[in-house]
Known about the structure:
By secondary structure, the chain is mainly β. The chain is built from 1 helix and 7 strands, in the order E-E-E-E-H-E-E-E. The chain has one helix at residues 71-82, and strands spanning 9-13, 21-23, 27-40, 51-65, 85-93, 99-115, 123-130. A hairpin with a 7-residue loop joins strand 6 and strand 7. The longest helix is centred in the middle third of the chain and has 12 residues, at 71-82.
Amino acid sequence: MAQIGFSKKLYLHLAGESTNHTMLKGETSSSISLSADVIEVSDKETSWKKYVAGYKGGTIDATVYADPADEAQQALMDALFNGTEVQGFIGEVDAEGSAANGYDFAAIVTSVGETYATGSAIARTTSLQITGEVTT
């Protein structure tokens, strides 16, 4: 069965606590892209190429309405300026605040951009490069 996109959100683990899921306020969209490199190991036994799995990685993108009072948005800005990692989760959090149906990760903030369109709220886009293992 198809899922509705607004059920999955981007959360940060502030203060290093993996159970403290702080959502980015004003989120309008978020995405995660996971990938795996392949290494060619072809030999002369066949004319078909052969591959084995290599390194894995991923990126996360999010768009929010800019909110200077939002703790999670400020944590992303601080991480960009200080070159520090953020811990987070993209997925669903149940009524008790437990992570479900998503991905835990550590990431480096690679970009933050803002759009100042006439007649519109300020939109902030953030890109993160996942570093290390992603868990489900």
